[in-house]
Amino acid sequence: MPYHTFKCSECIPDRAMHAVIKGPGEDLTSCLPLGYLNTIPGTISERGCAFCGAKHVIGSPMKDVIHLSHGPVGCTYDTWHTKRYISDNDNFQLKYTAATDMKEKHVVFGAEKMLKQNIIDCFKAFPHIKRMSIYQTCASALIGDDINAVAKKVMDEMPDVDIFVCNAPGFGGPSQSGGHHKINIAWIDQKVGTFEPEIKSKYVINYVGDYNIQGDSEIMIDFFQRMGIQVLSSFTGNGSYDDLRGMHLAHLNVLECARSSEYICNELRKRYGIPRLDIDGFGFEPLSASLMKVAMFFGLEKEAQAIIDDETARWRPELNWYAKRLKGKKICLWPGGSKLWHWAHVIEEEMGVKVVSVYSKFGHQGDFEKGVARCSEGALAIDDPNELEGLEAMEMLQPDCVLTGVRPGEVSKKMRVPYLNIHAYDNGPYKGFEGWVRLARDLYNAIYSPIHQLSGLDISKDEIPTDKGFMTRQMISDVNIIGDGTTPIEERPYTGEWDIVTKLRGKKYPKLESQQQLGMV
Amino acid sequence: MDDVMKDRVEQLADFIMKWCLWQFHSRAWDRERQNEEILTKTMQLLCDEPVNLSTPSDRCYWVDAVYLANGFKKTCPWLGIMDKKDIKLLMQGLKGRIDYLTINGSLNQELTNPIY
Ligand code: SF4
């Protein structure tokens, strides 16, 4: 068994099977870490809680909803929306979040009355919003407040509002993933089938498991709509509450992040017979294949091919410019969940960087199966690493860049290893063809930033050169690029706009509209 | 199975492991169904046999099968000179190998969890 023991974890024998190195000839029957188990006491895990997974990953991207945590204000404050899941309604759900601010007296005497008043106050404060999600926390779960009953009472008194209750307290699972599960099942049990959105096309999908980080979902939905496909609901990036109540009417569930939302797709298949198609929205080749698969399901191959040809012609040369300069660089791919398998192979294939490690704090063994299957020999896969293990891995692997979230990213910066924020993104969106070039650009900028020339100098002892200036990124990156005229003229750094998402809002889709005019249902 | 066949099965399994996601549904019974449906349809496509597309689920398996058949043809030129009988044997071997990697030999402890 190719298990890897970190020196810093030798004193924690339970960690023994949580890291593996993919050796020659290894496959998934010999090389797979444990995953999604209770946190081992003493490892100082960096996981989030189940409430956080339910509310801040899946619930909160819903845009036309008041999001109310029923619990101490700290649960909401400490995990306040820090992901950039934007929306086309002026980011209502990012700007406002609410908490009932439970105190000791509520723990003793109950908090249902106070919850009811909070719900009413919230609807009064935002009279244009008629939908609400309430999230249970540890405190309100332990005292046994019946949130569903309170919500029902309010809905009876205020017939124009609709309330969803998510009972995923912090302790409801080993990690945030427990919350993903609970909110998926709660949504299909409580809300799917309670609303009938307008069907405007012969081709109808739910786009599931994308949270519109810096516009990712909007980029993908644009492709589908250009083909003439109606995206009935987006689960849940830029998603609308009522559209998501109508998920049962789609013909196909197109699933991106199976980790966070395969549960609802499985249930939709079981209860409504809607097939589940897993896709990869990142990277030119996987994205092209994914668009073509969705198109083939409906017989829209020509439409998909036109998009793939246009986008590839426009963006491939710019991707190539970066790929030439990134070739051979080593990265640690340390995201939350799905990017560890969405990117493990394609970032190597298309940008030439080598993935030397993958990890997830909350992933299940199913995620590691995909990640380990896709990454190359020698890669180190770690389940739920702690900070010391992360440091040891960086020392051992010497990556040129770490792709991760803010907290581990700041640690890697202190090690003088650049990092890219792939949770909230640096300059996303990263989905779509152009988005993939934006990721390459951010990676290039991180690795070749001139700051590394300065940050490595210790002014207390090093000699500071005063006779020459900084080397620019391109001076460093182009040392090995031969300027012999073999570089095609169209290969160049990214030329897209700063904001590529806003212009999609309100865009007209002739193929979709022509079906509406024909009264297609 | 002779060594050539074994090697060919391995090449096809590697392609699936790297470029596909359908084999990694979360439960054993899902994986059994996915492997059976998609690999059967892929075999039918490679052998020019008719493929059942009568239900939405069939169409969904079929799109993954088309991707697979095209990918196999592109990356494994030897497929083009194999006769249909051998392709069927090859695909049978592949089904066994994928079942082993994703179900029977899998270390994933969640496969038998009775609920989603
Ligand atoms: S673990 Fe419990 S108390 Fe802590 S943030 Fe999560 S819900 Fe709140």
From TrEMBL, chain A:
Q: What Enzyme Commission number(s) apply to this enzyme?
A: 1.18.6.1
Family classification:
Belongs to the NifD/NifK/NifE/NifN family.
Q: Which organism is it from?
A: Methanosarcina spelaei
GO molecular-function terms, A-Z: ATP binding; iron-sulfur cluster binding; metal ion binding; nitrogenase activity
Fill in the subunit field for this protein.
Tetramer of two alpha and two beta chains. Forms complex with the iron protein (nitrogenase component 2).
Physiological role: This molybdenum-iron protein is part of the nitrogenase complex that catalyzes the key enzymatic reactions in nitrogen fixation.
Q: InterPro entries in the record, alphabetically?
A: Nase/OxRdtase_comp1, Nase_asu, Nase_comp1_asu, Nase_comp1_CS, Nase_Fe-Fe_asu
What keywords are assigned to this protein? Answer: ATP-binding, Iron, Iron-sulfur, Metal-binding, Molybdenum, Nitrogen fixation, Nucleotide-binding, Oxidoreductase
What cofactor requirement does the entry state?
[7Fe-Mo-9S-C-homocitryl] cluster; [8Fe-7S] cluster
Q: How would you classify this enzyme at the top EC level? A: oxidoreductase
Spell out the protein name for this chain. Nitrogenase protein alpha chain
Ranges for domain Nitrogenase/oxidoreductase component: 49-447
Chemical reaction(s) catalysed: N2 + 8 reduced [2Fe-2S]-[ferredoxin] + 16 ATP + 16 H2O = H2 + 8 oxidized [2Fe-2S]-[ferredoxin] + 2 NH4(+) + 16 ADP + 16 phosphate + 6 H(+)
UniProtKB/TrEMBL annotation, chain B:
Keywords, sorted A to Z? ATP-binding, Iron, Iron-sulfur, Metal-binding, Nitrogen fixation, Nucleotide-binding, Oxidoreductase
Q: What is its EC number?
A: 1.18.6.1
What is the protein's given name?
nitrogenase
InterPro entries, per database record: Nase_Fe-Fe_dsu, V/Nase_d_su
| Pfam families recorded | AnfG_VnfG
Q: Name the domain of life this protein comes from.
A: Archaea
Give the EC class as a word. oxidoreductase
Entry annotated with the keyword Cytoplasm: no
Q: Which residues cross the membrane?
A: none
Q: Which organism is it from?
A: Methanosarcina spelaei
Gene Ontology terms for molecular function: ATP binding; iron ion binding; iron-sulfur cluster binding; nitrogenase activity
Catalytic activity entry = N2 + 8 reduced [2Fe-2S]-[ferredoxin] + 16 ATP + 16 H2O = H2 + 8 oxidized [2Fe-2S]-[ferredoxin] + 2 NH4(+) + 16 ADP + 16 phosphate + 6 H(+)
